[in-house]
Design goal:
By secondary structure, this protein is an alpha+beta fold. It has helices at residues 5-14, 19-33, 43-49, 54-62, 88-100, 120-125, 147-157, 161-170, 177-182, 187-192, 194-197, 211-218, 220-233, 257-266, 300-316, 318-325, 332-346, 348-358, and strands at 68-74, 80-86, 132-137, 172-173, 203-204, 236-240, 243-248, 277-280, 286-287, 290-291. It is built from 18 helices and ten strands. It has a four-stranded antiparallel sheet with strand order 6-7-3-8, covered by helices on one side. Strands 1-2 form a two-stranded antiparallel ribbon. The two termini are 46 Å apart. 30% of the residues are buried.
Length: 365
């Protein structure tokens, strides 16, 4: 539902607002409405749209950093990944911002993560069958984006300074002193947050529902610079969150890593050099987890692992098998089904066979 322009005009005149005031506010509203964005006149109006008392939302804005819990999860290839997850009250606010504002911003085709209708499949297809693939990774992707950049992003959308400031504060955070100190008895986890603790301004949080959309918007200029090079030199470019991929049939057409680094750093980011990789024809070419050397498909090792689990589930029973490999964790059925769904998103016919075997498993309940 768009902005009720006629109703607003009638109400504003009934309240004896001046023609200049009405003209100015309508111009502001029309600028947002034509983009499909919700009209938010001021902080009180934002509170109203969120069904919150103004003082309650103001408290969130002032102390957003205190509404997160800190923990770590295991990375797929070893090590730990730090996570700051917003409490449900703040997450609800951020979800409203995501769904009503950020999801309305259309992303260019070469941005494939966190964009409606796009997946790793679309990202991989852009590099299917290319002889040379260069992959680079941005370090600390979300946390490299500060509150001022987020404020500017909301301003560029057309929002009033005060509204943009509140939205930016609701979507960013600093490390809370008290919570950081509480991690002292978990030294390994506390160390993960050390660099963030010393940041001078709030940043995008990995774990907030608004961070992916905002990161895509803020990376727009960097992506356009990369596409400018792609159009000039004849290579393909895509970005899936912090994974940037370049491909071509001639090695000389690929951009130099030094040039990529220069662009990335002038945009406020830093490359994770140990993740930079050049893949040649004949190598095992994987882009965002999918093989692309001939046609896009799930790596055989991934499918083989699913078949292995299904075999032992059929032999010992689903619950017994997962109790053997992960005692005390009751995630087996959902985990295995999730892996088959992933295969289905890329190779539906292969997944059908896996589903048929999966349905034969006795889970004991």
């Amino acid at each position: 539902m768009g902005f009720p322009r006629n109703d607003y005009l009638t109400a504003a005149r009934a309240q004896n607002h001046s023609d200049d005031f009405i003209s100015e506010t309508l111009s502001y509203a029309d600028g947002l409405d034509c983009k499909g964005l919700p009209v938010i006149f001021d902080q009180h109006h934002l509170s109203y749209l969120l069904y919150m008392e103004h003082r309650e939302l103001k408290q969130f804005v002032r102390s957003a950093s205190g509404y997160y819990k800190y923990f770590a999860i295991k990375k797929r290839h070893g090590g730990l990944r730090r996570i700051m997850s917003p409490y449900s009250e703040l997450r609800d606010v951020q979800t409203w911002i995501k769904e009503n504002i950020l999801d309305k911003i259309e992303q260019p085709i070469y941005v494939t993560a966190f964009a409606k209708g796009r997946t790793i499949m679309e990202n991989a297809r852009m590099h299917e069958g290319r002889k040379y693939i260069l992959k680079v990774d941005i370090a600390n992707f979300f946390e490299s984006i500060g509150v001022r950049q987020v404020y500017v992003a909301f301003k560029k959308m057309g929002y009033d300074k005060g509204v943009a400031a509140w939205l930016a504060n609701l979507c960013t955070a600093k490390i809370d002193d008290y919570k950081y100190e509480q991690l002292e008895d978990q030294e390994e986890i506390q160390k993960l947050f050390d660099d963030l603790y010393h940041k001078s301004e709030p940043f995008l949080v990995q774990g907030a529902p608004t961070s992916p959309g905002l990161a895509n918007i803020i990376c727009n200029r960097m992506d356009k610079r990369m596409m400018g090079l792609a159009n000039k030199h004849g290579f393909n470019y895509s970005r899936y969150a912090d994974d940037m991929t370049f491909s071509a049939d001639e090695k000389d057409r690929l951009p130099k890593v030094g040039l990529i680094r220069k662009i990335v750093e002038t945009e406020g980011f830093r490359l994770k050099d140990e993740k930079t990789e050049l893949l040649h024809e004949g190598n095992r070419q994987i882009v965002t987890g999918l093989l692309v050397d001939d046609h896009v498909r799930v790596p055989g090792s991934y499918k083989k692992d699913i078949k292995r689990h299904i075999h032992f589930c059929l032999k010992y029973g689903g619950r017994e098998h997962f109790h053997r490999i992960a005692p005390g964790k009751a995630y087996g059925k959902e985990w295995l089904a999730g892996r088959i769904r992933y295969v289905h998103s890329v190779e539906p016919e292969t997944a059908k066979k896996l589903w048929a075997e999966f349905e034969k498993i006795d889970w004991g309940y």
